[in-house]
Task: inverse folding
C-alpha cells in the first residue's frame, strides 16, 4: 500500500530540493495571531478547496490564517522588457527600467505600471494610446508616390498629422491632385493643415464626378460636371457650397483652365451671416462664482483665455514665460498662429497672480523642462466632479479639438452640474472660442469699437464689428426706434420732407426696413409729387387711392400682407359693429384692388 502524506505536512520547494514540514510534530506554537496580536496559534485545520490548504485558527478573534499568502500580479507577471510610457513616472523598477510594469489579467493583454497606475497596450498603434501619443514616431522620408503623406514634413505639430489620397480616381486626376496639394504645402498657402485637408476633401468629391463622366484629361472638364457637383451638395448650407466652389476654382486656376467659365459668379449663393454668439453677463458671472470648485489649473486656463480674448489655439500653446514688464507695466504676451505675429495685452494684478500660481504648479507637477503654461490631463471623468481626484497632468499642451480639450469639458460640466442659466432661462452652450467674443464685446461696450479692435489685434474695425462685437438688440433699438417712429408718423402729423434725415433723401434704399409690423402703420411705395410740395392729404390709407401713388413690385409681399390684414380687419369690424374701422378697411381694399392685380402680373410675368 502507498503511504499517504499527512494533512499536517506541507511541502516547500527550495534551492536544495523539497522541504517537508510536519506541523503537528515540529511546530512549537511560535506564531502569534497577526490580527489580534494576543493569542499564539495552536490548532491547525485542513481545507482541500483552499489555495493554501493548511491553515491556523485563532481562538481569540476566530480568524483563519493561512501559512502562505497569494503572490500579487505585479510580482509574478512582472515585465522587465517594457518601460512605463507615462513621462511623469520617474521611479525605477527592479531591473533599472522606468516604472514597474506587469500584465493585467484580461483578454487584451493590457499592462499597468505599479507606480503611477497607467494602463496601456504595448502593441497599440492608435493615435490616442499611451504608447503612440507619448513616443515620437520616426518620420520617414517624404515620398510623392505614397498614398499617405505625413504633414510633419511641412508643419510643426500638425493636426491632423497626415492626409491620404486613397480612393481617388481616375489615375490622371490623382496625379494632378497630388501635384496641387504638394504646391499648397510647399508654398504654405494655408497657415494650418486644415485648409489643405478641406481642399483635398472637395477634390476627392469632384473626382467622383469626373470618373462618372469618363473624363480622360484636364481640358475635358466641363461645365456640366461642375453643375453635377453642385447638384450633389445642394442640401448643404450656402456657406458650405461657396467654400466648395472656392476650393475647386483655385484648383482650376492652378490647372490653367477657364475657371470663370466653369464656375460662374451666379453659382455663389448669398450668405446670411448670423450675429456673433457670446455668453451674457449673467452666465459669465455664474461661471466665475463656481470656478473655485474645479481644479485650479482648469480655472486659470478659462480665466486667462477669457481675459486675453485670444484664440483657443493660441492659449493652448501659451509659453511659460508669458508675463513681460515694460515701463513698470505688466503685459501678457502670446503668439497668434493665424496672423503669425506676437501680441500682448495689459494684465491686471489678479490675472498676473493667477499666472504666477500656475507657473509654480507647472514646475512642481511637471518639471523645469516643460515650456508651456498649460498642459493636458488624463482620467477626467464626469462622475468625479468637482474635485476630479483621478485627473493626472501630462507634459503636452492642451489639444485644440473641442472634444479633447479638458478645459471645455470641465466648464461644460460646471454649467450642467451647477444648473447655470442665461438671462432667458436657457442653459448656455459653452465652446472654447466663445470666450473671445465675450471679452471683445465687453471691451467694446466699455471703451468703444476702436479699443476692441486694438485688443483683438485686428487690422480693420469692420472685422471686429462684423464678427465679434455687433450691436445688441437693445443698442439697435435705442438708435433705431426713434427714427422708425419718425418715419411711421403714427400720430398722422404733418412732416415736411426737410424733416427727414439727409441720408434718407440721398439714398432711400439705405433706410428701407422690411419689418414684421402691423399692416396699418406704413405706406410702401413712392409718391410722384414734388417732394418740395407738401402733400395736401397726409392721412393713411388715402395714399393707396391717390393718383400720385406709385406701387413698387419689390414691395409686393408687403402689399399682400397688408391686403390680407385689411380683409381681416374688415371682418372683425363687421362683427364688432365698428363703423369707422369698417369704412377705413373698405376704402383701403377698394383702393388696392385697382392696382394690386396689375402689380401681381408685372411681378410674376
Result:
Amino acid at each position: 500500500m502507498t503511504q499517504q502524506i499527512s494533512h499536517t505536512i506541507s511541502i516547500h520547494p527550495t534551492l536544495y530540493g523539497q522541504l517537508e514540514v510536519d506541523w503537528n510534530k515540529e511546530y512549537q506554537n511560535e506564531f502569534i495571531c497577526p490580527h489580534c496580536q494576543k493569542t499564539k496559534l495552536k490548532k491547525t485545520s485542513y481545507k482541500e478547496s483552499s489555495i493554501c490548504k493548511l491553515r491556523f485558527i485563532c481562538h481569540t478573534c476566530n480568524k483563519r490564517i493561512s501559512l502562505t499568502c497569494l503572490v500579487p500580479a505585479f510580482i509574478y507577471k512582472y515585465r522587465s522588457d517594457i518601460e512605463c510610457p507615462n513621462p511623469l513616472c520617474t521611479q525605477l523598477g527592479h531591473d533599472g527600467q522606468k516604472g514597474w510594469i506587469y500584465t493585467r489579467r484580461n483578454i487584451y493583454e493590457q499592462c499597468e505600471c505599479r507606480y503611477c497606475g497607467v494602463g496601456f497596450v504595448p502593441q497599440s498603434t492608435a493615435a490616442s494610446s499611451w504608447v503612440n501619443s507619448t513616443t515620437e514616431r520616426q518620420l520617414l522620408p517624404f515620398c510623392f508616390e505614397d498614398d499617405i503623406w505625413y504633414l510633419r514634413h511641412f508643419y510643426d505639430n500638425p493636426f491632423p498629422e497626415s492626409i491620404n489620397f486613397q480612393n481617388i480616381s481616375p489615375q490622371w486626376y490623382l496625379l494632378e491632385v497630388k501635384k496641387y496639394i504638394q504646391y499648397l504645402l510647399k508654398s504654405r498657402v494655408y497657415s494650418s493643415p486644415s485648409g489643405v485637408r478641406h481642399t483635398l476633401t472637395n477634390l476627392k468629391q469632384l473626382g467622383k464626378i469626373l470618373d462618372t463622366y469618363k473624363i480622360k484629361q484636364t481640358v475635358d472638364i466641363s461645365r456640366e460636371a461642375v453643375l453635377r457637383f453642385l447638384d450633389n451638395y445642394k442640401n448643404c448650407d450656402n456657406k458650405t457650397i461657396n467654400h466648395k466652389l472656392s476650393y475647386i476654382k483655385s484648383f482650376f486656376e492652378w490647372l490653367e483652365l477657364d475657371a470663370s467659365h466653369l464656375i460662374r459668379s451666379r453659382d455663389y449663393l448669398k450668405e446670411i451671416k448670423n450675429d456673433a454668439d457670446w455668453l451674457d453677463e449673467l452666465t459669465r458671472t455664474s461661471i466665475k462664482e463656481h470656478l473655485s470648485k474645479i481644479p485650479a489649473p482648469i480655472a486659470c486656463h478659462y480665466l486667462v483665455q477669457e481675459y486675453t480674448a485670444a484664440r483657443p489655439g493660441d492659449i493652448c500653446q501659451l509659453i511659460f514665460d508669458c508675463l513681460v514688464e515694460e515701463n513698470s507695466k505688466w503685459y501678457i504676451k502670446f503668439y497668434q498662429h493665424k496672423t503669425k505675429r506676437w501680441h500682448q495685452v495689459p494684465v491686471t494684478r489678479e490675472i498676473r497672480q493667477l499666472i504666477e500660481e500656475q507657473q509654480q504648479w507647472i514646475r512642481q507637477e511637471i518639471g523645469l523642462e516643460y515650456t508651456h503654461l498649460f498642459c493636458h490631463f488624463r482620467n477626467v471623468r464626469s462622475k468625479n466632479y468637482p474635485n476630479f481626484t483621478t485627473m493626472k497632468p501630462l507634459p503636452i499642451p492642451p489639444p485644440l479639438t473641442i472634444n479633447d480639450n479638458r478645459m471645455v469639458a470641465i466648464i461644460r460640466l460646471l454649467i450642467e452640474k451647477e444648473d447655470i442659466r442665461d438671462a432667458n432661462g436657457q442653459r448656455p452652450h459653452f465652446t472654447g472660442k466663445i470666450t473671445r467674443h465675450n471679452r471683445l464685446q465687453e471691451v467694446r461696450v466699455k471703451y468703444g469699437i476702436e479699443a476692441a479692435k486694438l485688443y483683438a489685434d485686428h487690422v480693420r474695425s469692420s472685422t471686429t464689428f462684423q464678427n465679434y462685437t455687433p450691436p445688441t438688440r437693445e443698442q439697435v433699438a435705442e438708435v433705431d426706434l426713434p427714427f422708425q417712429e419718425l418715419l411711421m408718423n403714427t400720430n398722422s402729423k404733418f412732416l415736411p420732407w426737410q424733416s427727414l434725415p439727409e441720408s434718407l433723401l440721398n439714398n432711400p434704399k439705405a433706410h428701407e426696413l422690411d419689418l414684421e409690423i402691423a399692416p396699418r402703420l406704413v405706406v410702401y411705395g413712392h409718391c410722384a409729387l414734388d417732394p418740395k410740395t407738401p402733400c395736401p392729404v397726409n392721412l393713411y390709407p388715402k395714399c393707396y387711392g391717390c393718383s400720385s401713388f406709385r406701387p413698387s413690385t419689390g414691395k409686393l409681399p408687403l402689399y399682400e400682407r397688408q391686403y390680407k390684414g385689411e380683409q381681416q380687419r374688415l371682418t372683425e369690424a363687421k362683427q364688432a359693429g365698428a363703423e369707422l374701422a369698417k369704412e377705413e378697411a373698405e376704402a383701403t381694399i377698394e383702393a388696392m384692388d385697382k392696382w394690386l392685380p396689375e402689380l401681381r402680373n408685372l411681378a410674376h410675368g
User: Anything to note?
Assistant: The longest strand covers residues 329-336. Residues 148-267 form one domain. The first helix runs from residue 23 to 26.
